[in-house]
Protein backbone atom coordinates (compact mmCIF):
# COMPACT_ATOMS: atom_id res chain seq x y z
CA UNK A 1 0.00 0.00 0.00
CA UNK A 2 1.45 3.38 -0.89
CA UNK A 3 2.55 5.37 2.09
CA UNK A 4 1.13 8.88 2.69
CA UNK A 5 4.73 10.13 2.80
CA UNK A 6 5.38 8.88 -0.72
CA UNK A 7 2.14 10.50 -1.94
CA UNK A 8 3.16 13.73 -0.30
CA UNK A 9 6.54 13.64 -2.09
CA UNK A 10 4.77 13.06 -5.39
CA UNK A 11 2.51 16.07 -4.96
CA UNK A 12 5.48 18.11 -3.78
CA UNK A 13 7.23 17.25 -7.06
CA UNK A 14 4.10 18.15 -8.97
CA UNK A 15 4.03 21.49 -7.19
CA UNK A 16 7.64 22.08 -8.15
CA UNK A 17 6.59 21.65 -11.78
CA UNK A 18 4.14 24.55 -11.61
CA UNK A 19 5.94 26.49 -14.38
CA UNK A 20 5.11 23.60 -16.68
CA UNK A 21 1.49 23.62 -15.57
CA UNK A 22 1.39 27.38 -16.07
CA UNK A 23 2.71 27.06 -19.61
CA UNK A 24 0.05 24.44 -20.36
CA UNK A 25 -2.65 26.80 -19.11
CA UNK A 26 -1.24 29.64 -21.26
CA UNK A 27 -1.10 27.32 -24.22
CA UNK A 28 -4.74 26.38 -23.98
CA UNK A 29 -5.87 29.93 -23.27
CA UNK A 30 -4.31 31.40 -26.40
CA UNK A 31 -6.17 31.99 -29.63
CA UNK A 32 -4.55 30.91 -32.88
CA UNK A 33 -4.89 32.25 -36.39
CA UNK A 34 -4.04 29.98 -39.32
CA UNK A 35 -5.23 26.40 -39.46
CA UNK A 36 -1.65 25.19 -39.87
CA UNK A 37 -0.58 26.92 -36.68
CA UNK A 38 -2.40 24.75 -34.19
CA UNK A 39 -0.20 24.17 -31.12
CA UNK A 40 1.40 20.76 -31.03
CA UNK A 41 2.33 18.24 -28.43
CA UNK A 42 5.26 16.07 -29.29
CA UNK A 43 7.84 14.10 -27.38
CA UNK A 44 8.81 10.61 -26.44
CA UNK A 45 7.87 7.92 -23.97
CA UNK A 46 10.48 5.33 -23.22
CA UNK A 47 11.62 2.54 -20.97
CA UNK A 48 15.35 2.07 -20.54
CA UNK A 49 17.50 -0.44 -18.72
CA UNK A 50 21.19 -0.05 -18.00
CA UNK A 51 23.44 -2.80 -16.64
CA UNK A 52 26.80 -1.44 -15.53
CA UNK A 53 29.19 -3.91 -13.95
CA UNK A 54 26.33 -6.31 -13.20
CA UNK A 55 24.09 -3.72 -11.56
CA UNK A 56 20.85 -3.03 -13.44
CA UNK A 57 18.82 0.17 -13.27
CA UNK A 58 15.42 0.84 -14.83
CA UNK A 59 14.27 4.18 -16.14
CA UNK A 60 10.73 4.75 -17.37
CA UNK A 61 10.49 8.26 -18.78
CA UNK A 62 8.07 10.58 -20.54
CA UNK A 63 9.46 13.68 -22.23
CA UNK A 64 6.70 15.87 -23.69
CA UNK A 65 7.31 18.92 -25.84
CA UNK A 66 4.86 21.76 -26.37
CA UNK A 67 5.11 24.28 -29.21
CA UNK A 68 2.57 27.06 -29.57
CA UNK A 69 2.86 29.79 -32.20
CA UNK A 70 1.27 33.15 -31.43
CA UNK A 71 0.67 35.44 -34.37
CA UNK A 72 3.17 35.40 -37.21
CA UNK A 73 6.35 35.96 -35.24
CA UNK A 74 6.09 34.33 -31.81
CA UNK A 75 6.59 30.79 -30.69
CA UNK A 76 6.46 29.43 -27.16
CA UNK A 77 8.08 26.06 -26.70
CA UNK A 78 8.91 23.86 -23.78
CA UNK A 79 10.14 20.39 -23.04
CA UNK A 80 9.78 18.52 -19.78
CA UNK A 81 10.89 15.24 -18.30
CA UNK A 82 8.90 12.97 -16.01
CA UNK A 83 10.84 9.95 -14.89
CA UNK A 84 11.16 7.31 -12.21
CA UNK A 85 14.60 5.88 -11.56
CA UNK A 86 14.93 2.38 -10.07
CA UNK A 87 18.39 1.52 -8.75
CA UNK A 88 19.56 -1.52 -6.75
CA UNK A 89 19.93 -0.93 -3.03
CA UNK A 90 23.48 -0.53 -1.84
CA UNK A 91 25.26 -2.41 0.94
CA UNK A 92 24.26 -5.85 -0.29
CA UNK A 93 20.59 -5.31 0.55
CA UNK A 94 18.01 -6.90 -1.74
CA UNK A 95 15.49 -4.82 -3.66
CA UNK A 96 15.49 -1.46 -5.33
CA UNK A 97 15.45 2.17 -4.33
CA UNK A 98 13.55 4.53 -6.55
CA UNK A 99 13.31 8.25 -7.01
CA UNK A 100 11.21 10.36 -9.30
CA UNK A 101 11.78 13.60 -11.07
CA UNK A 102 9.42 16.01 -12.75
CA UNK A 103 10.93 19.07 -14.30
CA UNK A 104 11.21 21.38 -17.22
CA UNK A 105 14.12 20.88 -19.56
CA UNK A 106 13.53 24.29 -21.09
CA UNK A 107 10.80 26.90 -21.49
CA UNK A 108 11.48 29.62 -24.01
CA UNK A 109 9.77 32.27 -26.07
CA UNK A 110 11.00 32.89 -29.60
CA UNK A 111 10.47 36.09 -31.54
CA UNK A 112 11.34 35.99 -35.22
CA UNK A 113 12.58 39.55 -35.57
CA UNK A 114 13.91 39.43 -39.13
CA UNK A 115 14.83 36.88 -41.81
CA UNK A 116 18.22 36.50 -40.12
CA UNK A 117 17.53 37.08 -36.43
CA UNK A 118 15.43 35.22 -33.90
CA UNK A 119 15.37 36.51 -30.34
CA UNK A 120 15.02 33.81 -27.70
CA UNK A 121 14.15 34.56 -24.10
CA UNK A 122 13.59 32.37 -21.08
CA UNK A 123 15.16 29.08 -20.19
CA UNK A 124 16.89 27.62 -23.23
CA UNK A 125 19.25 24.79 -24.13
CA UNK A 126 22.79 26.11 -24.14
CA UNK A 127 24.03 26.40 -27.74
CA UNK A 128 27.41 24.70 -27.45
CA UNK A 129 28.37 21.88 -29.80
CA UNK A 130 25.61 19.77 -31.26
CA UNK A 131 24.59 17.18 -28.70
CA UNK A 132 22.73 19.39 -26.25
CA UNK A 133 20.42 21.09 -28.73
CA UNK A 134 20.06 18.51 -31.48
CA UNK A 135 20.57 15.02 -30.14
CA UNK A 136 19.55 15.06 -26.48
CA UNK A 137 15.80 14.32 -26.96
CA UNK A 138 15.17 10.67 -26.14
CA UNK A 139 13.39 10.14 -29.47
CA UNK A 140 16.41 11.39 -31.44
CA UNK A 141 19.50 10.08 -29.68
CA UNK A 142 20.88 6.83 -31.11
CA UNK A 143 22.14 5.78 -27.69
CA UNK A 144 20.38 5.94 -24.37
CA UNK A 145 23.05 8.00 -22.76
CA UNK A 146 24.88 11.04 -23.99
CA UNK A 147 28.59 11.31 -24.62
CA UNK A 148 30.99 11.62 -21.68
CA UNK A 149 31.74 15.25 -22.58
CA UNK A 150 28.10 16.29 -22.79
CA UNK A 151 28.40 18.61 -19.79
CA UNK A 152 31.52 20.37 -21.07
CA UNK A 153 30.77 23.83 -22.44
CA UNK A 154 27.08 23.77 -21.52
CA UNK A 155 27.91 24.94 -17.99
CA UNK A 156 27.00 21.55 -16.49
CA UNK A 157 23.24 22.19 -16.35
CA UNK A 158 22.87 22.36 -20.16
CA UNK A 159 20.42 25.23 -19.75
CA UNK A 160 20.76 28.98 -19.73
CA UNK A 161 18.34 31.52 -18.27
CA UNK A 162 18.41 34.77 -20.16
CA UNK A 163 18.48 35.73 -23.80
CA UNK A 164 19.81 34.46 -27.05
CA UNK A 165 20.16 35.69 -30.61
CA UNK A 166 20.25 33.07 -33.33
CA UNK A 167 19.47 32.53 -36.94
CA UNK A 168 20.73 31.99 -40.41
CA UNK A 169 23.45 34.53 -41.26
CA UNK A 170 23.81 33.41 -44.87
CA UNK A 171 21.89 30.80 -46.81
CA UNK A 172 22.99 30.04 -50.38
CA UNK A 173 22.56 26.98 -52.49
CA UNK A 174 26.18 25.92 -52.02
CA UNK A 175 26.76 27.01 -48.42
CA UNK A 176 25.05 28.35 -45.36
CA UNK A 177 26.21 29.84 -42.08
CA UNK A 178 24.16 29.89 -38.91
CA UNK A 179 24.91 31.33 -35.52
CA UNK A 180 23.75 31.50 -31.91
CA UNK A 181 24.93 33.83 -29.16
CA UNK A 182 23.61 33.89 -25.60
CA UNK A 183 23.89 35.38 -22.17
CA UNK A 184 22.65 33.52 -19.13
CA UNK A 185 22.09 34.77 -15.60
CA UNK A 186 22.83 32.78 -12.49
CA UNK A 187 19.81 30.98 -11.09
CA UNK A 188 19.43 28.49 -8.27
CA UNK A 189 15.75 27.93 -9.00
CA UNK A 190 14.83 24.26 -8.94
CA UNK A 191 13.27 24.40 -12.41
CA UNK A 192 15.58 26.93 -14.02
CA UNK A 193 18.97 26.09 -12.61
CA UNK A 194 21.62 27.91 -14.60
CA UNK A 195 25.00 29.55 -14.30
CA UNK A 196 26.02 33.07 -15.21
CA UNK A 197 27.70 32.58 -18.54
CA UNK A 198 27.85 33.66 -22.15
CA UNK A 199 28.93 32.11 -25.41
CA UNK A 200 27.77 30.93 -28.77
CA UNK A 201 28.26 28.80 -31.81
CA UNK A 202 28.91 29.34 -35.52
CA UNK A 203 28.39 26.59 -38.11
CA UNK A 204 29.22 26.36 -41.77
CA UNK A 205 27.27 23.83 -43.84
CA UNK A 206 28.23 22.76 -47.36
CA UNK A 207 25.17 21.04 -48.87
CA UNK A 208 26.96 19.56 -51.88
CA UNK A 209 29.60 17.94 -49.67
CA UNK A 210 27.00 17.33 -46.96
CA UNK A 211 29.59 18.55 -44.53
CA UNK A 212 29.07 20.73 -41.47
CA UNK A 213 31.84 22.28 -39.45
CA UNK A 214 31.21 24.40 -36.40
CA UNK A 215 32.95 26.19 -33.59
CA UNK A 216 31.58 26.87 -30.11
CA UNK A 217 32.74 29.07 -27.29
CA UNK A 218 31.48 29.50 -23.76
CA UNK A 219 32.65 31.51 -20.77
CA UNK A 220 31.62 30.88 -17.21
CA UNK A 221 31.11 34.23 -15.50
CA UNK A 222 30.71 33.20 -11.89
CA UNK A 223 33.24 31.92 -9.37
CA UNK A 224 36.48 31.24 -11.17
CA UNK A 225 35.87 32.40 -14.71
CA UNK A 226 36.60 29.64 -17.18
CA UNK A 227 36.66 29.34 -20.96
CA UNK A 228 35.29 26.45 -23.00
CA UNK A 229 36.02 25.71 -26.65
CA UNK A 230 34.47 23.18 -28.93
CA UNK A 231 34.32 22.09 -32.53
CA UNK A 232 31.99 19.73 -34.33
CA UNK A 233 32.11 18.00 -37.70
CA UNK A 234 29.15 16.20 -39.27
CA UNK A 235 29.39 14.44 -42.58
CA UNK A 236 26.88 12.42 -44.61
CA UNK A 237 28.33 11.16 -47.89
CA UNK A 238 26.04 11.49 -50.90
CA UNK A 239 24.13 8.42 -52.09
CA UNK A 240 24.61 6.80 -48.73
CA UNK A 241 22.79 6.37 -45.44
CA UNK A 242 26.06 6.56 -43.60
CA UNK A 243 26.35 9.37 -41.06
CA UNK A 244 29.39 10.57 -39.19
CA UNK A 245 29.08 12.95 -36.28
CA UNK A 246 31.82 14.17 -34.01
CA UNK A 247 32.55 16.73 -31.34
CA UNK A 248 35.56 17.87 -29.41
CA UNK A 249 35.37 20.12 -26.36
CA UNK A 250 37.95 21.59 -24.05
CA UNK A 251 37.42 23.19 -20.67
CA UNK A 252 39.76 24.59 -18.06
CA UNK A 253 40.20 21.22 -16.33
CA UNK A 254 39.34 18.53 -18.86
CA UNK A 255 38.83 17.86 -22.52
CA UNK A 256 37.45 15.09 -24.66
CA UNK A 257 35.84 14.02 -27.89
CA UNK A 258 33.34 11.60 -29.36
CA UNK A 259 32.93 10.25 -32.88
CA UNK A 260 29.73 8.45 -33.85
CA UNK A 261 28.99 6.60 -37.07
CA UNK A 262 25.71 5.00 -38.02
CA UNK A 263 24.28 3.36 -41.09
CA UNK A 264 20.90 2.23 -42.43
CA UNK A 265 21.21 -0.70 -44.89
CA UNK A 266 18.96 0.24 -47.82
CA UNK A 267 20.17 -2.28 -50.38
CA UNK A 268 17.72 -4.95 -49.26
CA UNK A 269 14.35 -3.40 -49.97
CA UNK A 270 14.85 0.18 -48.80
CA UNK A 271 14.46 1.83 -45.44
CA UNK A 272 11.10 0.20 -44.76
CA UNK A 273 12.25 -3.39 -45.21
CA UNK A 274 13.02 -5.34 -42.06
CA UNK A 275 16.73 -5.12 -42.81
CA UNK A 276 16.51 -1.45 -43.72
CA UNK A 277 15.03 -0.74 -40.30
CA UNK A 278 18.22 -1.95 -38.64
CA UNK A 279 20.69 0.74 -37.63
CA UNK A 280 24.15 -0.32 -36.50
CA UNK A 281 26.00 2.41 -34.64
CA UNK A 282 29.50 2.82 -33.34
CA UNK A 283 30.78 5.53 -31.04
CA UNK A 284 34.25 6.05 -29.68
CA UNK A 285 34.95 8.60 -26.98
CA UNK A 286 37.81 9.70 -24.78
CA UNK A 287 38.17 12.16 -21.94
CA UNK A 288 41.40 13.61 -20.60
CA UNK A 289 41.87 15.42 -17.32
CA UNK A 290 44.05 18.48 -17.44
CA UNK A 291 44.13 18.84 -13.65
CA UNK A 292 42.34 17.41 -10.64
CA UNK A 293 39.90 20.26 -10.11
CA UNK A 294 36.54 18.58 -10.56
CA UNK A 295 34.38 21.54 -11.53
CA UNK A 296 32.90 19.68 -14.47
CA UNK A 297 31.07 16.34 -14.60
CA UNK A 298 33.65 14.48 -16.62
CA UNK A 299 35.30 11.34 -15.19
CA UNK A 300 37.93 12.09 -12.56
CA UNK A 301 40.53 10.09 -14.48
CA UNK A 302 41.32 9.65 -18.16
CA UNK A 303 38.66 7.41 -19.68
CA UNK A 304 38.16 5.66 -23.00
CA UNK A 305 34.92 4.12 -24.11
CA UNK A 306 33.71 2.23 -27.16
CA UNK A 307 29.95 1.91 -27.74
CA UNK A 308 28.50 -0.66 -30.13
CA UNK A 309 24.82 -0.08 -30.79
CA UNK A 310 22.15 -1.78 -32.82
CA UNK A 311 18.86 0.10 -33.09
CA UNK A 312 15.71 -1.08 -34.80
CA UNK A 313 13.30 1.47 -36.28
CA UNK A 314 9.85 -0.06 -35.90
CA UNK A 315 6.82 1.39 -37.70
CA UNK A 316 4.68 3.95 -35.86
CA UNK A 317 7.62 6.08 -34.65
CA UNK A 318 8.99 3.45 -32.34
CA UNK A 319 12.66 2.61 -31.87
CA UNK A 320 14.39 -0.15 -30.00
CA UNK A 321 17.81 0.91 -28.76
CA UNK A 322 20.39 -1.65 -27.75
CA UNK A 323 24.06 -1.19 -27.06
CA UNK A 324 27.11 -2.71 -25.48
CA UNK A 325 29.90 -0.48 -24.23
CA UNK A 326 33.32 -1.18 -22.85
CA UNK A 327 34.80 1.56 -20.72
CA UNK A 328 38.50 1.65 -19.93
CA UNK A 329 40.17 3.63 -17.17
CA UNK A 330 42.92 3.15 -14.61
CA UNK A 331 40.29 2.62 -11.90
CA UNK A 332 39.04 -0.48 -13.72
CA UNK A 333 37.33 -1.51 -16.90
CA UNK A 334 33.61 -2.00 -17.01
CA UNK A 335 30.95 -3.43 -19.33
CA UNK A 336 27.78 -1.45 -19.93
CA UNK A 337 24.69 -3.04 -21.49
CA UNK A 338 21.72 -0.90 -22.43
CA UNK A 339 18.33 -1.84 -23.82
CA UNK A 340 15.42 0.49 -24.33
CA UNK A 341 12.34 1.28 -26.34
CA UNK A 342 11.15 4.75 -27.30
CA UNK A 343 7.90 5.85 -28.88
CA UNK A 344 7.77 9.30 -30.44
CA UNK A 345 4.40 11.07 -30.50
CA UNK A 346 3.34 14.15 -32.43
CA UNK A 347 -0.18 15.48 -32.58
CA UNK A 348 -2.18 18.73 -32.40
CA UNK A 349 -3.00 20.05 -28.94
CA UNK A 350 -6.58 20.21 -30.14
CA UNK A 351 -8.49 19.65 -33.35
CA UNK A 352 -8.00 23.19 -34.70
CA UNK A 353 -9.56 24.86 -37.71
CA UNK A 354 -10.07 22.92 -40.92
CA UNK B 1 7.53 -9.39 -6.07
CA UNK B 2 7.93 -6.01 -4.43
CA UNK B 3 5.79 -3.03 -5.20
CA UNK B 4 8.82 -1.30 -6.72
CA UNK B 5 9.33 -4.11 -9.19
CA UNK B 6 5.64 -4.12 -10.06
CA UNK B 7 5.72 -0.40 -10.73
CA UNK B 8 8.81 -0.74 -12.92
CA UNK B 9 7.26 -3.51 -14.97
CA UNK B 10 3.98 -1.60 -15.27
CA UNK B 11 5.85 1.40 -16.67
CA UNK B 12 7.76 -0.84 -19.04
CA UNK B 13 4.63 -2.56 -20.24
CA UNK B 14 2.94 0.80 -20.77
CA UNK B 15 5.88 2.02 -22.85
CA UNK B 16 5.75 -1.13 -24.93
CA UNK B 17 2.01 -0.99 -25.51
CA UNK B 18 1.70 2.74 -26.15
CA UNK B 19 2.81 2.69 -29.81
CA UNK B 20 0.50 -0.18 -30.64
CA UNK B 21 -2.46 1.48 -28.93
CA UNK B 22 -1.62 4.75 -30.68
CA UNK B 23 -1.51 2.93 -34.02
CA UNK B 24 -4.95 1.48 -33.36
CA UNK B 25 -6.47 4.81 -32.37
CA UNK B 26 -4.83 7.03 -35.01
CA UNK B 27 -7.58 9.07 -36.70
CA UNK B 28 -7.82 8.42 -40.41
CA UNK B 29 -8.92 11.96 -41.21
CA UNK B 30 -5.53 13.47 -40.49
CA UNK B 31 -3.54 11.41 -42.93
CA UNK B 32 -2.78 13.70 -45.89
CA UNK B 33 0.21 15.70 -44.60
CA UNK B 34 1.48 12.81 -42.58
CA UNK B 35 1.50 10.28 -45.35
CA UNK B 36 3.00 12.88 -47.64
CA UNK B 37 5.92 13.65 -45.32
CA UNK B 38 6.62 10.06 -44.42
CA UNK B 39 6.51 8.83 -47.97
CA UNK B 40 8.65 11.64 -49.32
CA UNK B 41 11.12 11.55 -46.50
CA UNK B 42 11.60 7.81 -46.53
CA UNK B 43 11.88 7.40 -50.27
CA UNK B 44 14.04 10.42 -50.86
CA UNK B 45 16.05 10.62 -47.71
CA UNK B 46 19.19 9.54 -49.50
CA UNK B 47 18.33 10.51 -52.97
CA UNK B 48 21.33 12.07 -54.76
CA UNK B 49 19.16 14.64 -56.53
CA UNK B 50 16.55 16.39 -54.39
CA UNK B 51 13.13 16.34 -56.04
CA UNK B 52 12.25 19.84 -54.92
CA UNK B 53 13.63 22.76 -52.99
CA UNK B 54 11.53 21.76 -49.97
CA UNK B 55 12.76 18.20 -50.26
CA UNK B 56 16.35 19.41 -50.19
CA UNK B 57 15.69 21.64 -47.20
CA UNK B 58 13.94 18.84 -45.35
CA UNK B 59 16.89 16.50 -45.95
CA UNK B 60 19.50 19.07 -44.96
CA UNK B 61 17.85 20.50 -41.89
CA UNK B 62 15.46 17.94 -40.47
CA UNK B 63 16.41 14.38 -41.35
CA UNK B 64 20.07 15.00 -40.66
CA UNK B 65 19.24 14.77 -36.95
CA UNK B 66 16.13 12.61 -36.78
CA UNK B 67 14.08 10.31 -38.94
CA UNK B 68 10.90 11.77 -40.34
CA UNK B 69 7.86 11.15 -38.15
CA UNK B 70 5.43 8.56 -39.47
CA UNK B 71 3.03 11.38 -40.02
CA UNK B 72 1.22 14.31 -38.51
CA UNK B 73 -1.88 16.38 -38.98
CA UNK B 74 -1.74 19.20 -41.56
CA UNK B 75 -3.10 21.42 -38.77
CA UNK B 76 0.31 21.51 -37.11
CA UNK B 77 2.55 21.78 -40.18
CA UNK B 78 3.03 25.53 -39.63
CA UNK B 79 3.96 24.97 -36.00
CA UNK B 80 6.39 22.19 -36.92
CA UNK B 81 8.09 24.44 -39.46
CA UNK B 82 8.32 27.39 -37.09
CA UNK B 83 9.80 25.13 -34.41
CA UNK B 84 12.34 23.89 -36.96
CA UNK B 85 13.09 27.44 -38.06
CA UNK B 86 14.27 28.27 -34.54
CA UNK B 87 15.88 24.93 -33.74
CA UNK B 88 17.71 24.49 -37.05
CA UNK B 89 18.23 28.22 -37.71
CA UNK B 90 16.40 28.09 -41.02
CA UNK B 91 16.33 31.12 -43.25
CA UNK B 92 12.99 32.70 -44.10
CA UNK B 93 13.18 31.26 -47.61
CA UNK B 94 13.87 27.77 -46.27
CA UNK B 95 10.97 28.09 -43.86
CA UNK B 96 8.56 28.96 -46.66
CA UNK B 97 9.81 26.19 -48.93
CA UNK B 98 9.57 23.66 -46.13
CA UNK B 99 6.01 24.73 -45.40
CA UNK B 100 5.17 24.31 -49.09
CA UNK B 101 6.83 20.89 -49.03
CA UNK B 102 4.66 19.80 -46.10
CA UNK B 103 1.50 21.30 -47.62
CA UNK B 104 1.74 20.78 -51.41
TrEMBL record, chain B:
Residues 1-22 form the signal peptide. SUPFAM superfamilies: Cytochrome c. Residues 25-55 are annotated as: Disordered. The keyword Disulfide bond does not apply. It comes from Tunturiibacter lichenicola. Residues 49-104 form the Cytochrome c domain. This is Mono/diheme cytochrome c family protein. InterPro entries: Cyt_c-like_dom, Cyt_c-like_dom_sf. Residues 40-49 have a biased composition (Polar residues). Keywords: Heme, Iron, Metal-binding, Signal. GO terms for molecular function: electron transfer activity; heme binding; metal ion binding.
